[in-house]
Amino acid sequence: MKKILLSFFILILLAVSVTAANLEVEKSGKNPVVIKEINNPAIFQFNIDNKGATDDFEIYSLVGVSMGPKGFFTVPSGKSTLEVLVFPNSEMKKVDGFFKFEYQLKGKNSGIFKDELVVKVVSLKNVFEITAEPLSPSDSEATIILTNRENTKLENVNIKVDSIFFSDEEELSFEPFEEKELSVPISNLEGINAGPYLFNVEIKVQGENAENDILIDYLEESGLSVNESKTGFIVRQTTLTKKNVGNVPVVATIGLKKDFISRLFTTSSIPESRVERKGFSVSYFWDEELSPGESLVVISKTNYTFPFIVLVLLVIIIFFVKFYSQKALSLKKRVSLVRTKGGEFALKVNIQVIARKNVKNITITDQIPAMTKVYEKFGRQPENLDKDKGRLQWKLDSLTAGQERFYTYIVYSKLNVVGRFELPVARAVFEADGKFGNVTSNRAFFGREV
């Protein structure tokens, strides 16, 4: 009786342990982003509707993710809110993007509520989008735009910028998705050519830092921005652009230099204004007056497809020539019509054996077509003649490199053959350089009209 009562109580305890808490939870991300380097917690707001009685709960995960609040907290019956913190662990830091995991709310009396959370994991380097306004020679300050791309608040962010034009350091704080402009005094412009330049931005938060190299465009005196891009390998495309970003008309000139080979395969999007030849090189120039906002764009394409195909074909030919020349033995088979007194259909078959290396133990086998016979009174008789199977065999002890042998025989048939008549290939097995090899001949055929 005692054992039965004990089992009954154990079953009751197990039933309680798997009871699900009667909760409805709506999650919203206050700052649902974890930055790997600074170990900041992701912050969520839970809107909880407790359809049961007031109870003390604790929150945790089973994947090693630490969560807060720590310990037990009271969830009243009805609706309430709870701020939940998610602290990154080593597994979470391995992710770039979204990390999904299961958490549990366990009540002392209510049972367990299970749900999932998604945390976005980013590197400090990728938190900010950084751009810079173009520089003109008359500018005294450079404008750098920093945008917090994530839904997280960052305070006391140390920003250090450094380039050939300027150097500065400031401390700023950012709300989620906030954009701020940083005005940096220009210290040096003398002797610097127009064009795109990189400058370094170092961001430091809570002792951790990340660096980015950002492009800034330094305009020409007249207000011309210059850009050049190259793409492709076999078809190389070069795009040259000059844009008048000033406020007065200006003459823009684009130059492109080609050697005597590449120019043969080069085409341009617009005709050049002038051409200058010097030695084995040719320089092309495009001149155009641009109004404010207008651009001169030249797209030059050098198509190496044809020479590339020629090169590939040349490699293939060399490969096959080399492969063919490395064959120790080759067979060539030819066939011709033989006139007979009785008018039977007859063909003379000629097999040419060519040795390109020293070979030995050579066996040549040929097969005659069905419904034909071998005329045994012609040519050298084979060592083996199987009339039932129509098989002929000749044997040679050896051939030295460069030697040739010819084997000729005649086949005939009482049937009158019209049209294409194809003979089987001849085969040879041999030994060369201590290894056995085999080759086949070409397919010989004879065509006969009515």
Report on this model:
- By secondary structure, this protein is mainly β.
- It has four domains: 17-122, Sandwich (Jelly Rolls); 124-218, Immunoglobulins (Immunoglobulin-like, Sandwich); 228-305, no CATH class; 329-448, Immunoglobulin-like (Sandwich).
- It contains three helices and 34 strands.
- The strands form nine sheets. It has a five-stranded mixed sheet, with no helix packed on it. It has a five-stranded antiparallel sheet with strand order 28-29-26-32-33, with no helix packed on it.
- A hairpin with an 8-residue loop joins strand 10 (128-132) and strand 11 (141-148).
- It is flat, with a radius of gyration of 44 Å.
- The N and C termini lie far apart (110 Å).
- The model is unreliable at 1-18 (pLDDT under 50).
The counted number of beta strands is: 34
**Dominant shape:** flat
In total, how many domains does the architecture comprise?
4
The assigned CATH architecture of the largest domain is: Sandwich
What's the average pLDDT? 85
> What percent strand?
over 45%
What's the story with the biggest beta sheet? 5 strands, mixed
Distance between the termini: 110 Å
Low-confidence stretches: 1-18
Oligomer: single chain
Q: What is the name of the CATH topology of the largest domain? A: Immunoglobulin-like
